[in-house]
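Hey everyone, long-time lurker, first post.

I ran two proteins through the pipeline my lab uses and got sequence/structure pairs for each. Pasting them in order. The first:
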Amino acid sequence: MSMQNSKLEDLYSLSSKISCKEMWSKVKNYEAIAVSRDQELIKYLDQYTQRVKSNIAIIRDKCPLCDSKDFKFLFVKHGFDHMLCNNCDLIFTLQIIDENKLKYMESGKEGDLYGDLKKDSILGDFDRKKFEIVFEELEKYSKIKNIFDFGSQLGSFLDWASEKYSIVGHEYHASLGEIAQSKGHTVLSDNLATIKLDREYDLITCWDYLDHVTNPKETIRNLSKYLKKGGLFFFAINNRDSLSGRVMHEDSPMFIGPHHTMHYGIKQLKLLMKDYEFLYSYSYVSELNWISNWLNFKNPEFGDSPLLFELLDPKKITQLGMGIKVNAGFRKI
């Protein structure tokens, strides 16, 4: 499946330019944060079965996107069984953590570690470039004044958007939301499937967060009440059709057991947004440095393998819709 080209692959992605070792050396304390992140995930596991503890888990009996009961096992990652729906091709975790028994979305240390990464000035500069490019595209389709953003973390996007737009954020993780609020942003934390907002918005945004949402149909149905007719819905997702995912499977960085519980490509995203007009999509971040490490038997996240340009063309990867990131826009009919 080919996609339109995007400036983001050239201006945002380092994965097509330098090795992972060099890339992460630019981010303060990245390796220590990554190691802590992986250690944190162990706390959810039964030490004997190496699966998520049964007393905190809910077991899905159907695909959370299309409701089919026809799915098969793919692999285990971080103690969570990853399944493939034979009907809609969604990849999802069989188990999800019961938020009523363990407030991991509200207080999990992984959220704080992610926040530590987002504080890095180099990553922040790249994010600002990304936001600018995305909004050049969005403003072709609608006039934007008011935005609701969910999955706002410590407010990186809110910081950028508030310079030009009126924006309200949403973040379940308490300490991340408090950081965003301390910067003057309005950040809600109610259940997205039932939240009541006090106005309609021109745009709803979701940056790299949809794979965390365990009840996406209910969430989209509810939030749609607060999007103006002709308003836009924007997603940045981790791409289940990425080349790195297809080559590396469970060793792809997008698979994070308890947190990324559903994995979408553009096909699945269109199914979720079936009542909306699809406007555009594009893929970016080739992950060529991760793939090059993997093919050379090195640690995919930290290895120093030279990029295999003679084998793989990063622009071709993204043009074919196989970058690890996909952005997509939809319009409310």
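...and the second, right after it:
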Amino acid sequence: MSFDNLCKLLSEKYPDRFATWLLGEESRSVEVLKTELGIEPIRADSVTFLQTTHRILHLEFQTELKSNPPLPMRMLDYWVRLHRLYRLPVTQVVVLLLPPPIGTPIETVFELETTRHEYQVVKMWEQDAEFFLQDPVLLPFAPLAATQNPDQLLDRAAQQISQIQPTQRRQEVSSYLQVLAGLKYNKDIIRRIFREGIMRESVIYQEILQEGLQEGRLRGLQEGLQEGRQEGRQEMTLKMLQEGVEIELIARVTGLSIEQIQTLLAEANSNSETEQGFIE
């Protein structure tokens, strides 16, 4: 699923949450309107029209500002058609998912001679990440919000997803978030963090991680947590090897390479032989 179809799906599936976010007030009655307007119909996958009490909310999701016709002209065109059709005030919001190249102006108005039309632009990279992290509906947008540590934000989003019930809903939100995170993050980083998120749900892994933290491996919280995870992967790998789990499956579950797993196995066998020699 592409990002624009996903944004449209979410905004039409949960129109009240998007209206509350972008209008800044709770909207109890929200209706999704058709996206085809016309005299000459115009349609876009990333456009959503929501009707709240006595107002139309027009949402447009963009990753870049370039378009044909230009974005300001399109927003004016939509406004005229919406107002002519519904005879209601129209609030237009462009949700810009990614920052444009440095120096690129972000226009919020169409202006030509005596014609002037304004619209709003929401810059996702300036939005408060906490707002999205606390709302399961808007959680997929969290990785695109403001942060000094992108990997840490993605990790927190994965932790929030792990708490969602039931499982089907959790998997749904996870897939949505990974699609949008793909706009900003390397795919390998996304896979690693969400693989670790699955591991966190394992009781055995939690016990191992807790032991690692309690044994004084911490040099600051983040370093210690990372070390605990590494120790956890190794301990879990050894347990799986002892139970006869195939190496390829262990690699998929733990994120370790086959070479790393084979090295751990060799070291474990070597340590076992050394201990046996001492006993004899």
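Reply from user beta_strand_b:
Welcome! Quick read of the second one: Confidence is low (pLDDT under 50) at residues 215-225. The longest strand covers residues 55-62.
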